Amino acid sequence: MDGSTAPAPARPMARGRLFFANPGPTNIPDSVLLATARASIDFNDPAFMAVYDACFAGLKRVIKTEQNLFMYTASGHGAWEAALVNTLSPGDRVLIPETGHFSDSWTKMCGTLGFEVTPVPCDWRRGVEMSAIREALAADTAHGIKAVCCVHNETAAGMRLPLDQVRAMLDELKHPALLMADTISSLGCYDFRMDEWGVDVCVGGSQKGLMLPTGFSFTGVSDKALAAHRASTHPRHYFDWTEMLARKQKSFVGTVPVTLFYGLQEALRLLLEEEGLDNVFKRHNRLAKAVRACVQHWSGNNGPQLFCQNPERYSDSVTAVLMPEGFDAEAVRKIALEKFNVSTGGGLAKLSGKVFRIGHLGDLNEPMILGTLASIEMALGLAGVPHAKGGVQAAMDSLAKG
Ligand code: PLP
Fold it and tell me: Where does the pLDDT of residue 11 fall: very low under 50, low under 70, confident under 90, or very high at 90 and above?
């Protein structure tokens, strides 16, 4: 074909793989993609129900529960909403420890849905103080707080929240509030134990650690939360657990996303059988440590630094990188994408332009991380951002330790 008539490629570097280091959606393994490339069948067909039942059981193994599970054709926002409208009643009070953009968004949703929010504010770089959560719960002697809504992994800040400590506080104070946990960007990346940690509603989504396309989300639900559901008077329809329990699939109001389940079955095989969850967590930890070593190295010469200033809260699924004052994160992201075919996440809300985010979750390995970091280091240089060269070597040294 005459090159002059060929359409321009979407990006100058359109050949080779896009190195996708966004914190969600994430890379989808080829075998998962292939599994979804199947014709639809009736979602009540026994052949599909066998796949469905295996996925139902497998997902419960991932969230580590023997209790209840409800699934939705919706992104994570849908599961957030389902958690709230199924268990609470209009005017109920919820406690939301601030973690960053996603705790703020869940707070906003609570307000829109008619719940009263008591926030526990924090410095986004250090994460919420556990003592501040404890104080808020201890002050609530009348038990007006009906739920504590926590974001396990704050994707905007690259920080985790110790959910087991929140459960320990509730127990110590004999506070009956439900513990809700958003595990959207931690599930399948680092450990989460719904039953052991006494989480009443676990909110999860498909497009991050589960390595699936976006559009499917779910809630693990404790028996206690299911009892709260029976007493809840909040209007709901699409997300109504009672409606779901009356159906053969015990989930979904409406059409079941059949092809996503073929993908989920394969993703669960990869996570639970081929690699094993503990190895998945170790791999995420290894890659996360390498990314942090690299960024810590770049911070020399007044370069970019880790946004998270609290090592106990470092996330193993995403690292937010704070630019030096006066330098635009978007310029670095643009160069990385357009020149090197490397996609990173942007800063959210008040971090827009100040932070870029390296997602290191899902279907990733060492060379993918090293290629990503090398390209970002080149982009920093081309954008004229001060930094200490050699971050990739620091990442290699970290990975070599195993
Ligand atoms: N919670 C967290 C921690 C997230 O990272 C996201 C999305 O990135 C959401 C909630 C919202 O989920 P969704 O975009 O799938 O609706």
Answer: low
CB 151 within 8 A of CB 106: yes
Tell me the per-residue pLDDT of 285-325, one tens digit each, with 9 for 90 and over. 999 999 999 999 999 999 999 999 999 999 999 999 999 99
How many Å lie between the centroid of ligand 1 and the Cα of residue 73?
14
Q: Answer whether the bond into residue 25 is a cis peptide, omega within 30°.
A: yes
Atom of ligand 1 nearest to the CA of 205: 15
Write down the pLDDT at residue 402.
82
Looking from the CA of residue 156, the nearest atom of ligand 1 is 5
Mutation to probe ligand 1, out of 72, 80, 102 (largest number of atoms < 8 A from CB): 102
Report whether residue 98 contacts ligand 1, using a CB cutoff of 6 Å.
Answer: no
* 76 Cα: distance to centroid of ligand 1 (angstroms): 5
Ligand 1 touching residue 99 (CB < 6 A): no
Q: How far apart are CA 369 and CA 209, in angstroms?
A: 16
- d(CA 77, ligand 1 centre) in Å: 7
Ligand 1 pocket member 76 (CB < 6 A): yes
Per-residue pLDDT of 77-109, as tens digits, reads 999 999 999 999 999 999 999 999 999 999 999
